[in-house]
Design goal:
The protein has 14 helices and 16 strands. It is α/β, with parallel strands linked by helices. The protein folds into two domains: 47 residues, SH3 type barrels, CATH 2.30.30.140; 317 residues, TIM Barrel. Helix 5 links the parallel strand 8 and strand 9. The two termini are 34 Å apart. The structure holds S-adenosyl-L-homocysteine (SAH). S-adenosyl-L-homocysteine binds next to loops.
Length: 403
């Protein structure tokens, strides 16, 4: 199973390698993997080389992939031709600026304990009906090992509620051990912690953070997150980016009393924060929260938000979130990908825990075995001419952001 294809290093300039994929060049940082030279074959994710592989193994994979690689590009070009509607225009812009590569990150939800009490969220502290769970260090390492070494994921998000049971030392050990055993790019999504915690995790080899700012409207933020401030979160996101982290951030669409203007502002703010990936999803009311009676946003509103985000930021990676898939389990992912999105996440949480990560009801994919979910995602991507691979940052974009 392959989520990224190997590339060959054809140039090295300080911390940055040029990696060649069938003639297409991408840039990637090399600091996670020692002793790389020109001619090394590597896997890169999100602009970082995550592992090296032997030339023989790389050649085998590249031979198998070559025909499919170009065929998918052709299908994608054909499907993005002659755009007329808003969605088609967004899709054509995606094709032009980002090509057909589609990131597929795995997500491991390792604890549903949460110290916060956000009004929209089903794992909020005051939801006493929820059975709480935590994966211990060994369970996390086992799940990550399976996702990486058996299923082939090259990028994984480790997500939890805000749970200080995972001390800095524990988190540090988890990230260190993963880097030792698994060729993956690690994103952490653990809410707000001290910057010193994130610094330790960066030094241990984590390179990404997923942290949404939820809404750009300060008053709405304070109402929905009674114990926190938008300003603190934004400052944290900026500091994390300065630390060198890739940032995945975004917002909720359809919150009660959210203004249309907030969605446009939130798209802008995501871009200003330098997000490597946009993550925004529909707000889905949870029965055990103060917002239980609220209305759901429509699929159309979500697709429009994706399309607008694409039109304003042509180079973005835009995620089809699980929440969007939950709005329309049959067609949500396909429609999102055809309205400007180009990334997906697959849940790799052990099935026995998955249902308990109950941020909102009826989440798509909670019942599915990960293997069958991978199969259906790949089928969809091939149908749309998308390559289930992350080819790193396009050379031009990379030279802009890396200079
Ligand atoms: N503790 C982490 C992870 C929180 S849960 C953090 O603070 O970043 C991950 C995301 O789920 C949240 O950022 C929020 O945007 C989303 N979420 C929570 N409740 C939701 C709901 N009812 N509908 C849709 N998304 C929700």
């Amino acid at each position: 199973m392959c989520y990224a294809i190997p590339g060959k290093i054809t140039g090295l300039d300080g911390r940055v390698a040029t990696v060649d994929y069938y003639g297409e060049k991408r840039n990637a940082y090399i600091d996670l993997v020692p002793d790389l030279t020109i001619g090394s074959y590597v896997y890169a994710q999100g602009g970082f080389v995550v592992s090296r592989i032997s030339e023989a193994a790389a050649q085998d994979i590249l031979k198998d992939w070559r025909e499919l690689f170009f065929k998918l590009q052709e299908t994608d070009r054909r499907l993005s031709n002659d755009p007329k509607t808003l969605y088609e225009r967004a899709n054509a812009i995606r094709q032009k600026h980002q090509g057909n590569s589609c990131c597929i990150h795995g997500i491991l939800e390792f604890s549903n304990y949460c110290a916060r009490n956000c009004h929209y969220c089903g794992i909020r502290r005051d939801n006493k009906k929820l059975t709480r769970y935590r994966l211990d260090t060994n369970e996390i390492l086992e799940a990550v090992d399976y996702a990486s070494n058996k299923l082939g994921f090259k990028a994984l998000v480790l997500q939890s509620g805000e749970d200080v049971w995972y001390t800095d030392d524990k988190l540090h050990e988890i990230v260190t051990e993963i880097r030792k055993r698994c060729p993956v790019l690690i994103f952490v999504s653990i809410g707000e912690r001290d910057l010193s915690t994130f610094k330790r995790l960066y030094d241990a080899g984590a390179r990404g953070v997923l942290l949404r700012f939820e809404t750009s409207d300060e008053a709405l933020y304070s109402r929905l997150k009674p114990d926190s401030k938008l300003k603190t979160r934004l400052e944290m996101l900026k500091a994390l980016r300065e630390m060198g982290y890739l940032i995945i951030t975004g917002f909720l669409v359809g919150l009660p009393k959210q203004k249309g203007k907030d969605i446009l502002e939130s798209i802008k703010l995501t871009a200003e924060l330098g997000a490597e990936m946009f993550s925004f999803g529909p707000f889905i009311p949870h029965p055990e929260t103060p917002l239980s009676g609220a209305a759901l946003p429509s699929l159309e509103q979500m697709l429009k938000t994706i399309a607008r985000a694409r039109l304003t930021t042509p180079d973005a990676r835009i995620l089809v979130t699980t929440a969007l898939e939950t709005l329309d389990k049959e067609n949500g992912a396909r429609q999102g990908l055809m309205a400007g999105a180009n990334s997906l996440m697959i849940n790799v949480t052990p099935l026995k825990y998955r249902k308990l990560y109950d941020i909102y009801p009826n989440r798509a994919g909670v019942e599915d075995d990960t293997n069958s979910r991978i199969d259906s995602v790949l089928k969809l991507l091939y149908l749309l001419g998308r390559a289930p691979t992350d080819l790193g940052v396009a050379l031009e974009t990379a030279s802009k952001t890396m200079s």
